[in-house]
Amino acid sequence: MRPVGILGAGAFGKGLARAARRAGNRVVLFSRFGQDLDDPGIEVVDDLAALAETTPIFIAVPSVFVAEVGCELGVHLDGRHLLVHVSRGLVGPDLRTLSRVLREVSPVRRVGALAGPLDAAGLAQGLPGGAIVGSAFPEVASAVRQAIGGQSLRIYESTDVRGVEIASAIVGLSAIAVGYARAVGAGPSALAVMVTRAMHEAAAVGQELGAERETFWGLAGLGDLVAATLGDGRPELAVGEALGRGENAASAAKAAGANVESLLLAGRMAEYAERVSISAPVTSTVARVIAGELDTELALGALMARSVGRE
Amino acid sequence: MLRRLSENPLRLPHLSPYVPGPDDPAIFWFNSERKDILAEVERRVAAAHAKDRKALEVTLNEAAYHEIQRLERQRDAESKENLGYWRGLIRRIARMTDDEKRTALERTVHHMAKDVAGNFDPRVYQLSRKVVPKLLAGVMRPSDLPRELFGQGAPLIDELLRVEGCVEKLRSLSKHGALVYVPTHCSNLDSIVLAQALEKSHLSPVVYGAGKNLFSNPIISFFMHNLGAYRVDRRIKSALYKELLKTWSCVMIERGYHSLFFPGGTRSRSGLIENHLKLGLVGSAVEAFSENSVRGVARRVFFVPTTINYALVLEAESLVEDWLAEEGGARYIIEDDEFSRLDRWVAFFRKLSGQDTACVIRFGEPLDPFGNEVNDEGCSLAPEGQTIDPVSYTLRGDAPVLDHRRDAAYTRELGELLVERYRSETVIMSTQLVAHVLYRQLVAATPGLGIFARLRLRGEVSVPREELVRQIEVAREALRALGKRGEVRLSRTVSDATPDELLNRALSVWSGYHSRVAARDLGVEITAEDPTLLLYYQNRLVSFAEAIAPPELLEAAREIGQIGVKGGLR
Fold first, then answer.
1. How confident is chain A (311 residues) per 10-residue block, as mean pLDDT?
2. Which residue among A145, A180, B354, B371 is least packed, with the fewest CB closer than 10 Å?
3. Distance between B19 CA and the closest CA of chain A, angstroms
4. CB < 8 Å to B370, chain A
């Protein structure tokens, strides 16, 4: 059995390493800065070439770095390799998915995205949970299942990789809205309206980008958003709460203590929705809050004062 | 008699077997392999459908059901001959033993395969390469026919047809594997001009699937049949027949025959660059590579994204009306368009013969089945330039395996890439640019009007010539900028002529060929006489509309940009 490869030794990368060990696999973990995980089954390397002998290879770096590391890693890979990213980001003004970026910058075609209600701490501790792998290639989902799946971590699969990636990204954004709304005193009913509205927006944007609508009502979309709403401690909620307390985006990000992709995505997503004439009030409100254009009172009003009609 | 000749085209007798030379193209070997290929195709199709009892019964039932439906509709000689067989089969299926069902399947597949299989006769090929361009040119300019037939010098067709792109590389690649040309498709002339472009560029001839309707003329049927074309009967809807076509294509590519198919399926009715592809035959080429990899055959497959760009489209009027009827909800199949009328051909070529280049064929950068570019020796290249082994894409563990789901995923991704390449390899012609600028003015003058209402505004919107020329110049400059970034190509005329010349050229090309006038020259003004034709020609620029619009026309350009998007025709 080849070892499992992980590129990126942040909290999520380390969580994946622990999950892979729990599943009985050896791990090769790439870190530029060196790490000691106190596990002889985890080999920490600082040479990307070492990942060429692993399968699958998880890319656990923020979306802005995926193109760069994908390109560097790509010179060591060919068509046999399987790549799986775990990012919640979409890049560029046309919201390109990271599986597409990886296909463009590397020779690897068998690419997937790991998404759903997964968090670093849960992975590291082996808490019961589930996730979804989006990939057009069935062998990618099988490889992820073998790498980190088990009794307590159920791995589902979808061939709609684009839908999984977009849903995952927009859920991050919606989680900011949830945190924000809670901080400004919204009750369960208001949260339910907002969360449902957010999913409709996500599905409409996703469909425009070529995703399947059903994916948004599965584990990558609704399932993940339920976990966020119930308060699974993800950093997006902390960012939203800090914004709701009146902090600006920079200090809110600092308060969250982790990289939050959605802070960068909100503005681009709102612009995209406007460009393709999709009504996206939750997204555009979050984008304006992050940009400091709306104060608390106005923002809650903007979220709730939409015209009502058929669902 | 005519029907017999069309359905069973003549083959010339062979007094002595033709032995291909070492430099002859792969297709020269076809006849010596024809029996083998037929047998292999029949074996694979029958095996795939006879895996289990239920699948076998479903396949037979489905084939018989669709054939009965078709033949009952056709009510022709073929119906009389075959309807009884299918009706009898569907009645007997439930009582048949497994062996009888297998025999019925094999018989059906054999019958279908025989109808599909083509032929290649080097003598017909030699004849056609000498005579066809001259005859075509003679149709274009009848007074020059004697010079064309007996004189020296380049035939007129060479003046009208320009070939661009990776010709040298294709010549080199043809020695390393099978070239699969996947062009855009907007006219029935496409396969003829593409064959001429290959001949002109000293590239090997290709095998291709030709619609059975093209075989209705015994002379065309004779040439098609003897030049490697296999027959595709679009009226046959059964899954078994579609599988047979794909398997035929797969086996041919596996054996190294250069092939041609149009991934858009049928001709683009709208004039839009194809953005939804039918991937069945593309998939067969991807599978051909996997089959060879599993068998350890080091024969490669190269896809050649190709665009065919006309200044004037022979069937423009019928196509665009069909598209609009379809968008309006009344889909119908064109039975008798301009392609079947000789007078339209003559008028078409006469009109073109005054132009310097009437058609540009552009061969884009070839790709391996996994979307990688390749070098001159056919090695696949990663984005950073290192060579990679394409067999690695078929590996599971350390061995290449066949996997239909995996290959279907590769095919979808390749399809997306082809759509991108079609856009960037499109060559903008003068008629398209002028039509776009004029149509954009029409949209700007009628804000908020639905497209169908706008198309009824015949001759109601005019633009001062001076203003139109200025807009053409602005749009051309923007296209040049896109061209520099490799996002589109410009024909030589669009690139070099003055805007005034471009306008005059487009008006002159349109005038007199189509039954309606696209735009009328009133001296100081140009009138958008037929918005439907203008729409057709400008549609080639839809995906560039926003990028080439000046700020004051951005709204109109955005509206144009929605054409072809679902619900874009409001």
1. 94 94 96 83 95 96 94 96 94 93 97 93 90 96 95 94 94 89 87 88 92 95 89 83 88 78 89 88 89 74 62 62
2. B354
3. 40
4. 79, 109
